[in-house]
Amino acid sequence: GLDARLGLGADLSHLTPLAGTANATATLTPPRWSNSLLVTAAVGATVPVTKRIEIEALVFADFLPAAVDYNLAVGAETTTIVSSFRLRPGIALEFTVR
Q1: Among 12, 34, 68, 69, which has the highest number of CB atoms less than 10 A from its own CB?
Q2: Is 59 within 8 Å of 91 (Cβ atoms)?
Q3: Averaged pLDDT, 74-90
Q4: pLDDT per residue over 12-52, tens digit each?
Q5: Which residues lie across from 8 on neighbouring strands?
Q6: By the 8 A CB rule, do 68 and 36 touch?
Q7: Rounded Cα–Cα distance for residues 60 and 88 (Å)
Q8: How far is CA 17 from CA 35, 64, 76, in A?
Q9: pTM summary value
Q10: Which of 69, 70, 72 is CA-nearest to residue 20?
Q11: Strands, E, within the chain: which ranges?
Q12: How far apart are CA 87 and CA 64, in angstroms?
């Protein structure tokens, strides 16, 4: 059968800043976890393999409502190093045993 899902969650990323070569005076922040609100929508189809086993193929999209940037601040100057994609499409294959 067909399946549709909508959900809320958290996008968790572990950050470990590494020293670079551009500016030796930069002070690194300690390793930490970053979290952001995440909205997920998915549609898929389920195919029964046996009486207790199903396979489901899903097409999904994760959306970050707020932009997430990781910046380098040296003195009064701030530079964006990494900027996350706010819309992330994907596919998933699920095996279910009941």
Answers
A1: 68
A2: yes
A3: 87
A4: 989 888 877 666 667 788 999 989 999 999 999 999 999 99
A5: 39
A6: yes
A7: 8
A8: 16, 23, 19
A9: 0.70
A10: 72
A11: 2-15, 32-48, 53-63, 69-74, 77-83, 87-97
A12: 7
